[in-house]
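== Folding the chain ==

***
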Amino acid sequence: MSLTADVADADAGVVEPATVAVIGTGAIGQDLISKIHRSPLLDCRLVAGRNPDSAGLRHAERFGCPVTADGIDAVLAAATPFDVVFDATNAASHLHHWSLLEPLGTLVVDLTPSRAGRMVVPTVTGVGATTGRNINLISCGGQASIPVAHALAARFPVSYLEVVSTVASDVAGRGTRLNLDEYVATTAHAITTFSGVPDVKAILNISPAVPPATFRTAVHARIPGADVAAVRAAVDPVAERVRSFAPGYVVTACTVADDRVTVALQVTAHSDVLPRYAGNLDIINSAAILVAEQHAARLGRTARTEAAR
């Protein structure tokens, strides 16, 4: 399965960019704006925050994006509904936002652990035609760990999975800290959903280390009879596929001790805005952009088909 085939096809032709809005002006929102600006398939028409003096709104203005401090109200007041709305706020706010956006027919890409919409992990679920208009990207730890957990469970009889992610304190913003309970519950739920393993634990460490710790995730699995070569054969191709949209994603180690398997992952950010250690934000934003670009490509195909009739 090619994750980027539809995007490449659309990019090669003439496709009207999808109109997008971003709600939330923290680090995730700022990186999204930069990634949207680089995409030929996405056109940022609004960045909505709540603090008129926020650095995020100033950042958006530098890219020529219209900005507002009126939050979701400004998104709803647009003369024409946006094709895509990215929600980079928090889980509780997303539930409110979705109740207002659902009637508009907009694709909502949820970067909070709200568990309100269809869970998407690009290398596991694909990013093709979707059922429903609310796409939930689970969490940064989920995006990093689930491709590996899914691959291990598909190859081995896994009886237990534990995922431990570590993020630098200075890129764990207010939204992340508000969402800690939701992060743990949603990540664990998604790991079970995509691996089929009921006994799962998810842990998030926020590290105050100086210099800041690069985002890393360890997937611990209980697998009888596993060996390192077989584990690498299962996870290395998956990591290569993740790198097609998140190039900083690497497997740094695989170990096997008795029935305990550990796959260590690290993600560095490839971003105009984020420090390299903020791979947690980069991987979830890269997945969000991929989902939005595939949607834009589908909109473009639909428009061409209708024009040809």
